[in-house]
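User: Can you fold this complex?
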Amino acid sequence: MVKALGYFIEIIRGSVITIRHFMVNMWFHTLKVLRIKAKRKGAVTIQYPEEKRELAPRHRSLHRLMKREDGKPRCVVCMLCVTACPSECIYVEAAEDPDPEIQKYPSTFIIDLSRCCFCGFCVEACPEDAIRMDTGQIEFAEYTRDDLIYDLEKLTG
Amino acid sequence: MSEWIIVLIKIVCALVWFLMITLYLTWVERKESAVIQDRIGANRASILGLRVIGLFQPFADAIKMVFKEDFTPRFSRRFLHNLAPFLSFFFVAITISAIPFGDVLKIGGREIKLQIVDFNVGLLFVLAMLSLGIYGVILAGWSSNNRYTLLGGMRGAAQLVSYEVALGLSLIGLIMVYPSLRLSEIVHYQGELLFGWLPKWGIFLQPLGLLVFFFAALAETKRVPFDLPEGENEIVGFFTEYSGLKWGLFMMTDFMEVLIISTLLTTLFFGGWQVPWLSADGFHFPWGGQWLLPHGIVVLFQVLAFNLKVFFFCWLQVLIRWTYPRFRYDQVMDLGWKLLVPLSLVNIAATAIFMSI
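Assistant: Here's the predicted assembly.
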């Protein structure tokens, strides 16, 4: 009985915490309803499809292939990204370019996004700065796996 | 004939009030827990793109539950299995008939009590119906023919029976102070004044009784600090084998019990429909002022006061549900038998001594 009474203070303290949260949050909710500017919102929730969180500048989002000034892909098919990729989701095929300065260009460049783990190693590995992950796109869910296989057109586009 | 119509209207009004508030208690529970935890809570349910802070959520829930498969396990005792949710629902729902919502309403020379039935043993009736609700729990556990639900039902029976004792004993002091079992008379007694200014509410005359009653009543609702029969997050509870609307009835019963406990707390300990210093013809303030009001306004004030108090206690119970973790089984029994029962006995003795002085 004495032990149970000892818990009593802690029980009260616990309810004080929840009551405080309730009152403070309700205060800010009310301010929002009355359209009065407050220093914070009543909830920490970001209501996703309508409200989007700002991405960090170093966030790794959907890949893109960079182009030269004349519009050709910057990639020289050195295969470093393919080697670096831990999930083996990059597939590159080379073709010969008539320009002796370039020598090789990718005839196919496929990233299988259903396997990609967005580690960014391909970006790190690339000596030509041909692949980047800075598009800021994070919503590319599809209904089939085939739609997640991105080819050269989709990646440069 | 018109008597019957009035009774019918009262029944319909009380039931609609009861069921609507029960429905919206689910919304209150979602929203209040969200606000406590810095979230927003369910706000997506909409009708024609109109979503008023999720106010349509209860209807979405109800529709979902109606269209779920109503599965009865092959090994269950079918009749009792189907009967159990209705039993527990019925015995809680019937309790509302004894609760006074307000004083007498005078319309066209007719006096209408804002209470469905004014039993002369109203308090006993309420306690009896709350105790009979245990049958739903035990039957649900037993008729599912599943060892774990049976254990859940047994836990529920043990808990509810033990707290029934404290619940009953805590009210004896109250019956001594307000010498009546008629709920309307208990509320009338609470309209009197102590020392000329303090309303004679149960909280001022029976603070210990209120404490014991509140804890015991919380245990009776089978919700979180005392949710051993159900144990929704890890232990298997008594309505595991239920699905669809029958499961929904058990869920509704929980919320109805919250509402019933709130109305009982209001009626017994917080003056029911009494507004401090408001009598039948208006306010008579203890410092000498007067504010006379027409009859309709007074009744409106009383009903509003009753509703406000009930909502406050619903809010408080939801807050408690979202604040505390579950008691261990032995702690529940300790609290019931070693703390609440002795305290209620002390309360009876203290009340007797005070009254004989």
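The mean pLDDT of chain A is 90. The beta strands of chain A are 64-65, 90-96, 104-112, 131-132, 149-150.
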